[in-house]
Amino acid sequence: MWLIVELALCALAGWATGQIMKGGGYGLLADVLLGIAGGWLGGFLLGHFAMGGGLLGDFLIRLVGAVVLVALVRLIKRT
After folding, report:
1. Which is deepest, 5, 25, 34, 41, by most CB within 10 Å?
2. Long-range contacts of range 26-32, CB-CB < 8 Å, 24 or more positions apart?
3. What pTM was estimated for this model as a whole?
């Protein structure tokens, strides 16, 4: 059950990241996949600092991770 919730939060974070970071989007599927990867990254990194607080806190952590990952991918893609 935990994995299903985790994937849903990360996918939602990916979609939200696509809405937040305008310009040159990657499409829905790529946004969701980047959201899953970035969400796990954000959950792993920020989870060690005991950040979070329920479902909303977990979503915000995953959203930050997804935004950072998309920003890095865009930066690398430009060069």
Report:
1. 34
2. 26/70, 31/70
3. 0.79
Please report the pLDDT score of residue 79 as a whole number: 63
DSSP codes of every residue in 21-66: S-SS---HHHHHHHHHHHHHHHHHHHHTTT---HHHHHHHHHHHHH
Is residue 68 within 8 A of residue 45, CB to CB? The reply is no
- Cα–Cα distance list, 20 to 2, 29, 44, 48 (Å): 26, 16, 22, 26
- CA torsion through residues 30, 31, 34, 39, sign: negative
DSSP state of 7: H
Token pair 């939200």 in the structure block, residue: 16
